[in-house]
Amino acid sequence: MNLIYDRLVKRSTTFSICFALLLIAIKFVSWWITDSYSLLVSLFDSSMDFLASGLNFILIRYALKPPDDDHLFGHGKAESLAALAQSAFIIGSVIFLLFNSIKLVIHPTPVNYPIVGIIISSISTVLTFALVSYQRHVIKLTGSNAIKADMLHYSADLLMNIAVIIALSLSWIGIVYADGVLALLIGGYIFFHAIKIMFVALHDLLDKALPESDNQKIHELAMSFSDIHGVHDIKTRRSGPITFVQLHIELDDNMPLVKAHAIADKLEKMVANQFSPAEVIVHQDPISVVATEKVGLQKFK
């Protein structure tokens, strides 16, 4: 397992939990003073963030465990489970919030001491932006779906803080329905992106192949060897941080086994470096049996 990946992902989940607790405290005080529904929605969202980040914290550490006798391919899918669970959690909470936002639009209520909420929401916005920027950096380096799901919470929280500031400002000048309308818009945004994260996690759990462009890269790496006459049956999937690749290469019938093994071994290392961290298996086929093998593969499919 890539040690840099481990360190970055663990640190990110720890920061998320600490940050969520801080936001809950700040927003609770602000809501208590102002009685703003937008702030209550934001407080509820931060509470969901804390629970989801806690789940992330546990499952990601399990996903990073090395393979054992019962899990020979590792525990990486626990990361996708974390993303899936977070998405389901978010969707359920957002549906509840959307219904209440609709009621608030129909029956708006005034906000108390909006200036207090504006100041506290501004502080929350700055803090949230710092966390989201760090998570985006971690995702760029690791591609972690669980951190992507976690960042969704806080990206939505960032937008929510901005919307709360707008809603409180409008309420301050007498536009009382703005509180409910903006809460409704934020809920819709969170719902849409939670669905996207859920489908990504499901695809990983169901071993969806990598994009065709990645398969093409693998093909090009193989065909860069003058002794390889063709490539077929490229299979790819991802489990947590690890990419799994299998492919068949076509070699001369009379090539010595030692040479064929050396070519396959070198190709495995090249592909693994391209998709690190990765596990790669290269099967060597005599060119004379390729046509028969392809027919068999088509029947199997």
From TrEMBL:
Substrates-to-products reaction catalysed = Fe(2+)(in) + H(+)(out) = Fe(2+)(out) + H(+)(in); Zn(2+)(in) + H(+)(out) = Zn(2+)(out) + H(+)(in); Cd(2+)(in) + H(+)(out) = Cd(2+)(out) + H(+)(in)
In the bilayer, the protein is annotated as: Multi-pass membrane protein
Membrane spanning residue stretches: 12-33, 39-60, 81-99, 111-134, 154-175, 181-202
- GO terms for cellular component: plasma membrane
Q: Which SUPFAM superfamilies match?
A: Cation efflux protein cytoplasmic domain-like, Cation efflux protein transmembrane domain-like
Name any Gene Ontology BP term.
Answer: intracellular zinc ion homeostasis
* Residue span(s) of domain Cation efflux protein cytoplasmic: 210-286
Can you provide one Gene Ontology molecular function annotated for this UniProt record? ferrous iron transmembrane transporter activity
Q: Name one Pfam family in it.
A: Cation_efflux
* Coiled coil, from the record: none
Q: InterPro entries from the entry?
A: Cation_efflux (IPR002524), Cation_efflux_CTD (IPR027470), Cation_efflux_CTD_sf (IPR036837), Cation_efflux_TM (IPR058533), Cation_efflux_TMD_sf (IPR027469), CDF_Transporter (IPR050291)
Location in the cell:
Cell membrane
Q: Where is the Cation efflux protein transmembrane domain?
A: 15-206
> Which UniProt keywords are listed?
Cell membrane, Ion transport, Iron, Iron transport, Membrane, Transmembrane, Transmembrane helix, Transport, Zinc, Zinc transport
How this chain assembles, per its entry, is: Homodimer. The subunits are held together in a parallel orientation through zinc binding at the interface of the cytoplasmic domains.
The family note in this entry says: Belongs to the cation diffusion facilitator (CDF) transporter (TC 2.A.4) family. FieF subfamily.
Entry-linked PANTHER family:
CATION-EFFLUX PUMP FIEF, MITOCHONDRIAL METAL TRANSPORTER 1-RELATED
Q: What is this protein called?
A: Cation-efflux pump FieF
Where does this protein come from, organism-wise?
Answer: Frischella perrara
Q: Which gene encodes it?
A: fieF
